[in-house]
Amino acid sequence: MTNDLFLRACRREPVERTPVWMMRQAGRYLPEYRAVRAKVDFLTLCKTPELASEVSLQPVDIIGVDACIIFSDILVVPEAMGMKLFVEEGKGGPRFETPIRTRADIQKLAVPDPNRELKFVMDALRLTRKHLNDRVPLIGFAGSPWTLATYMVEGKGSKNFRAMKELIYSNPKDAHVLLEKLARTVAAYLSAKIEAGAQAVQIFDTWGGILPPDEFKEFSLRYIEQVLTLLKSNGVPTIVFCKDCGHSVEAIADTGCTVVGLDWSIDIAKARMMVGSTTALQGNLDPTMLYAPPERIRDGVKKILEKYGKGSGHIFNLGHGILPDIPVEHAKAFVQAVKEESVKYHQ
Amino acid sequence: MTNDLFLRACRREPVERTPVWMMRQAGRYLPEYRAVRAKVDFLTLCKTPELASEVSLQPVDIIGVDACIIFSDILVVPEAMGMKLFVEEGKGGPRFETPIRTRADIQKLAVPDPNRELKFVMDALRLTRKHLNDRVPLIGFAGSPWTLATYMVEGKGSKNFRAMKELIYSNPKDAHVLLEKLARTVAAYLSAKIEAGAQAVQIFDTWGGILPPDEFKEFSLRYIEQVLTLLKSNGVPTIVFCKDCGHSVEAIADTGCTVVGLDWSIDIAKARMMVGSTTALQGNLDPTMLYAPPERIRDGVKKILEKYGKGSGHIFNLGHGILPDIPVEHAKAFVQAVKEESVKYHQ
Fold it and tell me: pTM score, two decimals?
């Protein structure tokens, strides 16, 4: 492989510089992405391997990131389980027509065969691997069981997550049935992605942070651990990113994942002290810092590199997805700053 | 005073049981509150001492909480500094017509005399003290300088807080000028509240958690500390509540506040270990747990009491404001559960 910095950093092996990529790097901030989206709707883009592959490759070519993440949406998984997904243009991300509310709803959900119901994702991965031609590694991803369940029960994003909270507080047994089914589904999905060519996988737990720490462990982390246990990883690195879960960094590392993804609410120096001897770290620049001018972005990058300190085991990233209105030049300046400023920490 | 449990717990003095109140306890979940609001708009309610006092007293009479917090809105302070505030019914909370964007905007802001421009708040406090007749203590509050600045710069609540983040990352000097002016304003405002009868004051830092830990300290906590330094407290307890700032519990206690308010993302046992020998703690039930049936609410209460353990220094509360669609019976069950279950921890 031409550039395997990302994979080496995941394994905490020596690197010449810190690798960098951005969550949501294949996305709306890129004019080239918007040009593709102008022709097809969001779900068609997810489901057309040629187009999904095209937008996945854009940040590799345009921004120069050290890893390619396959373009997709976490909600194609519940759709494959039998839920009807739709997008109302201009009204936010995909939503479910009929949210899950009863035990019967949960029992009706299928555990899909990812190579059949989600073949379009596997095709996109194979095509992207081919086009990448080993320039940089390819990452596959999935939502965590908890985060998927949250969307399935609420139907969409939410402010207070009333329906999901009612489910876990008033009816925890049903919640566990749903989460267990999701853990099996996600494990099979990520295993198929690895088989189709993903060289690392990331689990996104976007909504783990809405839970108190004990409930986070009971309803989210436990099922992430189950996914990792069931996963046919063939030794590929696994990244677990739980947003707003700084309270549980050690517990996340204890799942046995290769890398803990950090949002910007935790000091990476502290996180390294807590888990850095066993686990690599990914993160964690405040995504809104990319609104600032390039010199300021560079200062932000330098500060995080300094906090992490010398040695491998750090994959630079934002603390959450890149925002759609970030200037492309700022994204480039961010990646360039990591490439230049990190060299001295690996000498 | 008939019931001074709240004040004694703030000072970590012995109590017979754990006191309890709820953030936003004077609010929409109460039909009696909605009846008052049906007659006047939100800002009129804030600015009419008789009505503000009436709704402040409702939860004392109806729910049986151990403290009364004066009904008001944090944004009346920037309004008194010269910003025009308005409410569009059905479109969320109050907003500013012209957000602050330039240094000139910041320089134009006045440091108001709270006994003149915010006299309606002081009148409401005096009236409420009179009606309370020493049944329970009266709490005054203010937004933190950072949280007020965020609303002033964004104009309203925000998802990514782009304008405020651009200000601190690209133009930190201006941000500091604004925050310093706000610290003086808030200190004068809270001092006047204490003079008018508030027996404790709480600073709400609703948006401290959008910052990385270092920036939280630089742009939020530093100015909370300044407020506390400038405050003419006359020995009344001070509560600092920073949402989503579990990363900085020790630093918050180091401001010298009497009580650290906790949201539900931190384990109260851990927080007590960190700061409990110097500082009382307030919190921290997940507010959505009040959607669950009363038996389940009681279990949640018991778990937090058990985590805090024996001894004084705990004021029970929700981890954030009570939600507007919580059934009144559930709020009552919550308060009752604390009153009953906490006795054994104080024997």
Answer: 0.96
